[in-house]
Design a protein that fits this description.
- Strand 7 (153-164) and strand 8 form a beta hairpin.
- This protein is of the alpha+beta class.
- It has an 8-stranded mixed sheet, with helices on both faces.
- It has a single domain, classed as Gcn5-related N-acetyltransferase (GNAT) (Aminopeptidase, 3-Layer(aba) Sandwich), CATH 3.40.630.30.
- 30% of the residues lie in helices and 35% in strands.
- Helix 1 crosses helix 3.
- The protein is built from 5 helices and 8 strands, in the order ββαααβββαβαββ.
- It is an enzyme of class 2 (transferase).
- InterPro entries: Acyl_CoA_acyltransferase, GNAT_dom, N-acetyltransferase.
- Belongs to the acetyltransferase family. RimJ subfamily.
């Protein structure tokens, strides 16, 4: 399946590809400090082309199995963000989690909100999912605002939910019903 959607005059959202490894490694290296407070600790290999190729290969195999779907925000030849549907559950649940990031030079331009809206449409129309879920650190006001603007509703609080930047962190939980 080929999915692509403009998010701004210069940035578009498209499905991830294995040949994104080099520009993705560059993007993560460029944003290492920007993303560090919000991400798990990353080994040095994560920031290499080989490491990203390995991760992309696994994520695309996961997508082929119907268990996830990674996308990239692209401007020219650069990757300036990412968003993915993770942990897709079928059966009576028909749900997935969503996670996203935007390059430090592109924050504040509405790209995260546009990407979340586009991926929610994709989840509803293409994957026929019923529900999306997301979590945000309580102190991550920007991410929480993106979720609220994108139609997500706060529904809970999870203590010690994920290991972020080397420590177990609480998260505010959000959901959006798609149909």
């Amino acid at each position: 399946m080929r999915y692509e959607r403009p998010l701004s005059d210069t940035v578009h959202l498209r499905e991830a590809r294995v040949d994104d490894a080099a520009p993705l490694a560059s993007a993560y290296t460029r944003n290492r400090e920007h993303l560090a407070p919000w991400d798990p600790e990353r080994p040095p290999s994560f920031f290499s082309e080989h490491g990203q190729r390995t991760l992309l290969t696994a994520r695309l195999a996961n997508a082929a199995a119907g268990e996830g779907q990674p996308f990239h925000l692209v401007e020219g030849d650069e990757i300036v963000g990412g968003i993915s549907l993770n942990q897709i559950v079928r059966g009576p649940a028909q749900r997935a989690t969503v996670g996203y990031w935007v390059d430090h030079e592109h924050v504040g331009r509405g790209l995260a909100s546009a990407a979340v809206a586009a991926v929610a449409d994709f989840a509803a129309e293409t994957l026929r999912l019923h529900r999306l879920e997301a979590g945000a650190l309580p102190r991550n006001a920007a991410s929480r605002a993106v979720l609220s603007r994108s139609g997500f509703v706060e529904y809970g609080y999870a203590a010690s939910y994920l290991r972020i930047a080397g420590r177990w962190e609480d998260h505010v939980l959000y959901h959006r019903l798609l149909g």
